[in-house]
């Protein structure tokens, strides 16, 4: 069974259609990169999955998206959906709390109270993102003091702390230096062993380095999705070939 499935999905801002009849599946234990020119609808597609797109004025949609087999439109309590589907944004966001409380924000929200459980979650997640050794002696210091790359790894740890099944990332490395980008790419590759990861990226090299599959969107339409090597080296569509060879975008 696919982990995320779009079925005849259309999205609009007011009268303007921004996603047209999207039908696509994302499997478990894989990284899919979403690529396409600026404004083609990548972020809207990503934010439709956890229903944060509908927070935008004028947004509406028809068709459906299923997460773990269930329609997101039938989810009554959005926090249930947001627990299954974690999200990491372009700008590294540290909550105005300590490093420790950034990681524990979600678990506390979902009712974990036991101190040893909280400590175990914190250490596990900070180790998962290779941040534990860097911060273990200053867990109670403000997260604002971390570097951009560290904040982004902390944001991933915060997302992982509620054990999501899907991790959405919207250009997570666009403000990071190559070393921090490399750390995050390694981390995503490891996390894909247990998660469905969907990453929007403008960096075609990054898509090629880390994703198992790549989806190309143009003007709100899914042109094709294929194993990454195939999409870059022998795409079905001339539009995809044009984009990946840098002719436009
Ligand atoms: N809140 C909004 N209200 C109205 N139109 C919007 C809104 N957000 C996005 N759009 C429009 O919807 C279209 C798709 O935007 P989206 O951000 O999904 O594209 P994108 O491919 O992620 O772009 P980029 O690569 O530049 O981040 C664009 O034409 C954009 O201008």
TrEMBL record:
<keyword id="KW-0547">Nucleotide-binding</keyword>
<dbReference type="InterPro" id="IPR005670">
    <property type="entry name" value="PstB-like"/>
</dbReference>
<dbReference type="InterPro" id="IPR027417">
    <property type="entry name" value="P-loop_NTPase"/>
</dbReference>
<dbReference type="GO" id="GO:0016887">
    <property type="term" value="F:ATP hydrolysis activity"/>
</dbReference>
<dbReference type="Pfam" id="PF00005">
    <property type="entry name" value="ABC_tran"/>
</dbReference>
<dbReference type="InterPro" id="IPR003593">
    <property type="entry name" value="AAA+_ATPase"/>
</dbReference>
<feature type="domain" description="ABC transporter">
    <location>
        <begin position="4"/>
        <end position="244"/>
    </location>
</feature>
<dbReference type="GO" id="GO:0016020">
    <property type="term" value="C:membrane"/>
</dbReference>
<dbReference type="GO" id="GO:0035435">
    <property type="term" value="P:phosphate ion transmembrane transport"/>
</dbReference>
<dbReference type="GO" id="GO:0005315">
    <property type="term" value="F:phosphate transmembrane transporter activity"/>
</dbReference>
<keyword id="KW-0813">Transport</keyword>
<keyword id="KW-0067">ATP-binding</keyword>
<dbReference type="InterPro" id="IPR003439">
    <property type="entry name" value="ABC_transporter-like_ATP-bd"/>
</dbReference>
<protein>
    <submittedName>
        <fullName>Phosphate import ATP-binding protein PstB 3</fullName>
    </submittedName>
</protein>
<dbReference type="GO" id="GO:0005524">
    <property type="term" value="F:ATP binding"/>
</dbReference>
<dbReference type="InterPro" id="IPR017871">
    <property type="entry name" value="ABC_transporter-like_CS"/>
</dbReference>
């Amino acid at each position: 069974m696919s982990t995320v499935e779009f079925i005849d999905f259309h999205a609009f801002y007011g009268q303007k259609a921004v996603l047209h009849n999207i039908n696509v599946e994302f499997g478990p234990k894989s990284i899919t990169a979403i690529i396409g020119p600026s404004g083609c609808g990548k972020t809207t597609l990503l934010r439709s999955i956890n229903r944060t797109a509908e927070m935008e004025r004028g947004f509406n949609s028809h068709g459906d998206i299923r997460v773990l087999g269930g329609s997101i439109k039938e989810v009554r309590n959005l926090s249930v959906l947001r627990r299954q589907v974690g999200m990491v944004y372009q700008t590294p966001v540290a909550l105005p709390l300590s490093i420790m409380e950034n990681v524990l924000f979600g678990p506390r929200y979902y009712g974990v109270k036991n101190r040893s459980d909280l400590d175990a979650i914190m250490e596990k997640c900070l180790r998962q993102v290779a941040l534990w050794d860097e911060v273990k002696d200053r867990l109670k210091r403000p997260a604002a003091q971390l570097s951009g790359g560290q904040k982004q790894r902390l944001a991933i740890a915060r997302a992982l702390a509620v054990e999501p099944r899907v991790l959405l990332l919207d250009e997570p490395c666009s403000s990071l230096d190559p070393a921090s980008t490399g750390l995050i790419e390694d981390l995503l590759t490891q996390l894909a062993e247990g998660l469905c990861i969907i990453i929007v990226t403008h960096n075609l090299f990054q898509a090629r380095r880390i994703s198992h599959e790549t989806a190309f969107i143009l003007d709100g339409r899914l042109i094709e999705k294929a194993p990454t090597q195939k999409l870059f080296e022998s795409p079905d569509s001339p539009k995809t070939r044009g984009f990946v060879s840098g002719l436009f975008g």
